[in-house]
Input
Amino acid sequence: MSNQEKKILVIGGGISGMSAALDASETGYSVILIEKRPSLGGRVSRFHQYFPKLCPPMCGLEINYKRIRPNKNLQVLTSTEALKISGEAPDLKVTLKTSPTYVNHKCTACGDCVDVCPSERPDAFNFGMNKTRAIYLPQQMAYPNRFVIDRKHCPEGCDKCVVACNYQAIDLNMPAKEQEIDVSSVILATGWKPYDAKKLTHLGFSKFPNVINNIMMERLASLSGPTQGVVVRPSDKKPPKSVAFIQCAGSRDENHLPYCSSICCLASLKQISYVRAQNPEAEIYLFYIDIRTPGKYEDFAARIQEDPKLKLIKGKVAKITETADGSLVMEAEDILKGNKVHIEVDMAVLATGMEPSIAGQSFVGDTIKLDSSGFIQEDQKAGIFSAGVAKMPLDVSSSVIDASGAALKAIQNLRSD
Ligand SMILES: Cc1cc2nc3c(=O)[nH]c(=O)nc-3n(C[C@H](O)[C@H](O)[C@H](O)COP(=O)(O)OP(=O)(O)OC[C@H]3O[C@@H](n4cnc5c(N)ncnc54)[C@H](O)[C@@H]3O)c2cc1C
Output
């Protein structure tokens, strides 16, 4: 096999996986990029804006999609995950499973199928804050731009979408597919999931509707979100006049996530700007232990903190309770003033941290070494590398830099044998 014939597999189609796959394939190597969801983009495709520039992530994602489309060295498999990795580099074998989406490549995303679909499902992309039809586009700027069907929600015997489709793009009997591929290097870019705020019982998430997490806030602020970008409190759909941001919700806590996710303070400061842009009069509170905005982000943090209606309270929220009208009372100790505070707000946003999503996935087994928090360790067996938040909490620009490093290591591994 020539070096160029040896393949690199990238697992995870978020910003880190896409970057690693593009960097390696654009240097002439053959790369397969798999993503378990029906479209690429990972977590950032849910964001309204990026700190510090407050620009939409879709611009950066679209630039990547533009690089992917003509790239003959890069094969993208969505709805596909790795089940098993075996063998030794440079002869690694990976078993892949592609789940059926029931819609094939002929789909033009015209939407005729949606118009006739009789049933609905909670929209997981928007954290269940709205519903889609059983046939749906995974997200507004989906890549590939193709509908998928959630068969669990199809009425028995219904084939209205098949009849409505003019392109023969729907196959309700599409099977799952398993295949074993030979690769020489694997890059793990499996990213993160939000820490499950239900475990923070004292903060009332999923008990009080107006307690949301920071990803729900991104979706509320996004033009493609459940409220077309209007930040409202979930209970009555009214714009909140007061909002509390609760830092370290579960983070830096031995009972939950012992580490700092390093971006949550920046994410909340960014989200304060979303609220402020929509309501110049809103009272905003930020409860924090320390505000961590290192290096290049200091100016951004200082700019947001100039807001005269933003009140910073150094202290952990001990408890959230609900009033009769759905408002919320934050109970905390104000460490700097040395007193207890009870502050009533319309809505609270929990700054939950990033938890690595690789733990528990079937291919990990004894093959992949994880640290005590579930992040991928640096020293793996030959041929296996990692990129982005799968390895440690990182912002987007650091994830992209890290991904380029992983691509280079994967290439070196191909050339060294
Ligand atoms: C509330 C919040 C706001 C943030 N805002 C910003 C911001 O404004 N600016 C900024 O710089 N950073 C921000 N971040 C950080 C940013 O989200 C991360 O840096 C970024 O998501 C890292 O991308 P990733 O590709 O490593 O992981 P992910 O985005 O999680 O992508 C991983 C991908 O891998 C897929 N995957 C997982 N397992 C498998 C498998 N077995 N097979 C196939 N696919 C798999 C997943 O489906 C996913 O698509 C924010 C974080 C939070 C929590």
